[in-house]
Structures are given as structure tokens and as C-alpha cells.
Specification:
Layout: H1 2-23, E1 24-29, E2 33-40, H2 43-48, E3 60-70, E4 74-75, E5 83-89, E6 92-100, E7 111-112, E8 118-125, H3 128-131, E9 140-143
Parallel strand pairs: 2-3
Antiparallel strand pairs: 1-2, 1-9, 3-8, 4-7, 5-6, 5-8
Length: 150
């Protein structure tokens, strides 16, 4: 019986670590800022994105991961707060949108597409890009579940 309680205690202690391993990571932009991200890899995760949430902490974001470079369309369906959107390829910011607005009730959601292919899309709270001085060409490093820097 003591063994079962010890095992339960160990699993309880590991739960936060195991939860982080499934869909979290970190994105570093230049030497200026690090963002803790939720990672969206599956089509369902990408479609859901940040929809339906009321806010996002200033140092948090969502990173959409694509297997090969594409021109992913981002839409603001069911969004409740504005976003800054960054498209990333080969470890660089290749396009960005500042202050993508959440749609008003009854209004069609806005759609945003990059000017060139991207491997990642990073969504962060509006104002993030200006607050941290992020510009096209900034170096980006992603540390995802696998722990591999890119």
C-alpha cells in the first residue's frame, strides 16, 4: 500500500512536467525577448488556435508549426482580443502584422496571409511587436517539445 502512495505522489509531482512536454515551448526573438508558447501542430489545434479565449499574458503566445514552408492563412474567427502575428522561416521573421483586430459581433473575421512562405506562425498579444522592437529579418530560435533549437 505504501508503494502505491509513493507512486501516486511521484506521478502527482511529475504531472506539471508531463503537461508541459506535450504542447509547450519557447521562442526567442533576437537577444531581446523570450516567449513561452503553446504549440499547435495538428490541423485541429491550428483551426482552434486562440479562439474563444479572453486574453493572453504579455509573455505568452501560440506557435503554429508546419511540416514544410507554406503560406498559412490566419483568421480571427471567435477571437476576443487583438493579436500581433509573426511568420517565421529559416530562423528569421519573414512577415508580420501588428494589431490584428478581433471581429465585432456580426462582423466577418479578418484574414491575414504572409507575403512569403513560412514554417511557423507566432501569435502574441497586440503591442508585443512594437514593445520589443521586432522587425523583419530578426533572428528567431524555437525550442519545442523535442528540445532541438532551430
Amino acid at each position: 500500500m505504501i508503494v502505491h502512495w509513493r507512486l501516486a505522489w511521484i506521478l502527482l509531482c511529475l504531472l506539471p512536467v508531463l503537461a508541459e512536454a506535450g504542447g509547450r515551448g519557447e521562442v526567442r526573438i533576437g537577444n531581446r525577448v523570450a516567449v513561452t508558447v503553446e504549440v499547435a501542430r495538428t490541423e485541429a489545434e491550428k483551426v482552434r488556435g486562440l479562439s474563444g479565449r479572453d486574453r493572453l499574458a504579455p509573455d505568452r503566445g501560440m506557435l503554429f508549426v508546419y511540416e514544410a514552408p507554406v503560406r498559412p492563412l490566419i483568421w480571427m474567427r471567435d477571437m476576443r482580443f487583438p493579436l500581433d502575428i509573426l511568420w517565421i522561416r529559416d530562423g528569421r521573421v519573414v512577415d508580420l502584422v501588428r494589431g490584428a483586430k478581433a471581429p465585432a459581433p456580426g462582423e466577418a473575421p479578418q484574414e491575414f496571409a504572409p507575403r512569403e512562405d513560412a514554417e511557423y506562425v507566432l501569435e502574441v498579444p497586440a503591442g508585443f511587436v512594437d514593445r520589443h522592437g521586432i522587425v523583419l529579418g530578426d533572428r528567431v530560435e524555437t525550442r519545442l517539445k523535442e528540445g532541438k533549437p532551430r
